[in-house]
Structure formats: C-alpha cells, structure tokens
Amino acid sequence: MPNFFNEMYTAEPAVREHYRRFDRWLEGQPPEVIARKRTEADLIFRRVGITFAVYGNDAGTERLIPFDIIPRIIPASEWAQLEAGLVQRVKTLNMFIHDIYHEQNIVKAGVIPAEQIFRNAQYRPEMQGISVASDIYAHIAGVDIVRAGEGEFYVLEDNLRVPSGVSYMLEDRKMMMRLFPDLFAQHKIAPVAHYPDMLLDNLRSVAPVGVNDPTVVVMTPGMYNSAYFEHAFLAQQMGVELVEGQDLFVNDNAVYMRTTRGPKRVDVIYRRIDDDFLDPLAFRPDSSLGVPGLLSVYRAGRVTLANAIGTGVADDKSIYPFVPDMVRFYLSEEPILNNVPTYQCRKKEDLEYTLANLPKLVVKEVHGAGGYGMLVGPASTRDEIEAFRQRVLAKPDGYIAQPTLALSACPTFVESGIAPRHIDLRPFVLSGKTVSMVKGGLTRVALKEGSLVVNSSQGGGTKDTWVLEK
C-alpha cells in the first residue's frame, strides 16, 4: 500500500495543529468511558431508526451505518479553498446542463463530443428547449471529495440526481454534541444544524414565476427505499409534507396534493425518485411511483422539480473527465479543484493502457453508483481481474479507469483499538437564487483495513465533520 496522507498526524509523527486540542482530550479519556459512549451511540441510532435498507441478497433487511466518534477536522483555511472550488464546480455544472438542453454551445465548440451527451442514457430529449426556474437544474449537489498525495484535494465524482447522506451529517453532529458536550466548548466548530432551513429557503427561491408563498413537498418512492429515513427526516426538519406519487395528481395543468381538507396546489417537489419513475405517461409506463402528467406541468413551468429531470447527464462518469474543460469554457477560470486523472476506455489508447494495467487501476462503470460495478485492481484476485477484463472488452465505452489513489486516512476506532482508516467527504451544495452550503459534510470511512471503498452499502461507516471557525 502506498503512503497516504494522515489527517491527524504528520510523517514525523506529530499531531497536526488543528487536531492538538482534540488529541489532548482523547489522551485523557479512560478506555471504558469511550467504550460506553460508543455503545450508547449505537443504541441511540438504532432507536431513532437511522438505518438504510439493504438490496440484493439481504433484501428487506435494514442495517445500522457504523458511526465513529473520532471526528474528521478541517481547518478554516482548507475549507475556504474547498468551498470556493465546490461553488465554482456546481455553478459550472448547472450552466452545462442548461446549455445542452438549449444552445449546445459546448458541443458546437468541440469541447465535448456530441455522442457523449446525446447517446448518454441520462440525457432526456424531453427536456430540450424547456425553461426551468432560475435556470437551475441541480438544486442539491453532493460532491465526493478525496485527499491524496501530499494532501491535495480531488473531486472523485459529482452526484446531481438524488444525492443522499445529508441526514447522517446532521445526526452525526447531534450525536457528538450529546455524547461529548465538553469537546464543543473547547473548539470553535461551524454549525450544520441549519441545513434544513437553508434547503427550504433554497427550494422556495426556485418556485414557479408568480408564486409568492410556495408549497414545498418531499416526494419519496416509499418506505422500502434505502434512503427512506432521510426522506422522512428532511420533510420533518423542513416542516413540509412527505408524499408518495399516489398522494399527488395533475389537474388543469397543475399538481395537487390530496389532503384531509381537499386538494392543495403543490409548487416545488423535492423528489427523491429517479427520472424513469416520475411520470408513467412520459417515461416508464409500468411505474407506480410517479404522477401521471407530471412532465406536462413541469414543461409548462407550473411546478419546480428539484433536482430537474435530465441532470444525470452531468454526473455520469463518462462526462466527469470534461468538467475542468467546462469550467474554462463557461467561466473562463482555471478549476480550483482537480479531477482524478481518468482514462476513457472508449478511446483506443486509453483502453490499451487500462487493459495492460488492470492490477494497478480502479475501473468503474460509467453509470455505476454506490461502489457497485467497479474493480479495485490492487485489492482483486487474478480471476476477478480477468473476469473484469472481459467485461471491459465487451463494452469499452461503458468504463473509465483511474489510478488507485492512496486516500487520506483518519484515526478510527476499530476492534483492535485506534487505527488509520481511509475516508472521503461529501459536502452538500445548494443552488437557488444563490449558491450556498453549510460548513461541513458527510465523512465516510472504509472500516476494513486497507479498503478504499467507503460506501455504506459496502461496509463503510461515517464520522462527524468539524470545520473549525477562524
């Protein structure tokens, strides 16, 4: 395993400046107290219902996402750089989505090949020429950030469809404040609890033209969805209704919600349902999750969907390599945050390099998500590598490859004690009349020794993320 950047310790080793106060506190904690607090956290999370549903072989079961009590701490100066880069990136992605559904200037300029967009499974021709409120498509973006090398930040991927995880960011903070109030008295930690208020303000700001007091709802596929806890949590925190498709109907070119007092007009839908299932008249006719006629109301500008239909084309892994060029094209600026170097297997020379170096690379399906459909070369057997080679050869344009980054690590409680485990960070960026974000995000941690896969579906856990105020 290559050397990796440790968030808490330098190579000497010495404790980094922004962790010193926490380190002194941790040194003074008896092991039995820490063990008791960790057990208490598990019990509370289970009682509150902070779980996620499991698909596949264990379908129908629910799993607790492991929570680690050693926080990931980010100093103010580092956060300022991250925030500027995230705002720049999300602003660019919104401009890109608007462009491809309107003038298509980036295609005409030859920056991105037309087939990469128009043959993309996430491209929605139904959105061509449609105006959306404030020209915002990705109202809520979850951008995955990793740290590698000497501590440089990289964007691993952009999540613009229905990014999840913000409820865990909020609940992790509540848990840490409950278990260790003395720590918060010793540190100036930026708050995150106001995220639901920011989200509601953001959603209200993009209501259809002429609507001054918009009705906002959260639309869920239902209780069997893996992120149902989050859907219910955010609706409750924002003080808005949680609805399913069957609770809504279209009449006279407007969307209504069934209530005990009769139909109520709905203006903004924060939907946690994929495009395909939103409207059986426009997309999948077998969908029972959506609202018949919703697309026609949306096209008429009489309801706002957050995120917009068709945003997925911008977070697809086949589009990811072009984002730095998008920043230059739309903003005439250099990207603040770097991409991970990426090989596009649709290109002959990139395919040849990938196939020759599979044991060293991470190879991903362009439409894959959640840690599925990928090969981590250094952690794979020879048979797994050869099986994956056949998949790539059969459909080269369905894969990208990247070097295996030595993700930064943060001390984490494991069975053997405290040991470094690899982490990433998902900050949440809100786009409305302005682009805003809370100072923090969801830190995910790969709990298996040496593992680089942090996804909860693959056994990962979470940590509270502290951004220190100046």
UniProtKB/TrEMBL annotation:
Signal peptide: none annotated. PANTHER family: BLR5612 PROTEIN, SLL1039 PROTEIN. The lineage of its organism: Bacteria, Pseudomonadati, Pseudomonadota, Betaproteobacteria, Burkholderiales. This is Circularly permuted ATP-grasp type 2 domain-containing protein. Pfam families: CP_ATPgrasp_2 (PF14403). Gene3D superfamilies: 3.30.1490.270, 3.40.50.11290. Residues 71-446 form the Circularly permuted ATP-grasp type domain.
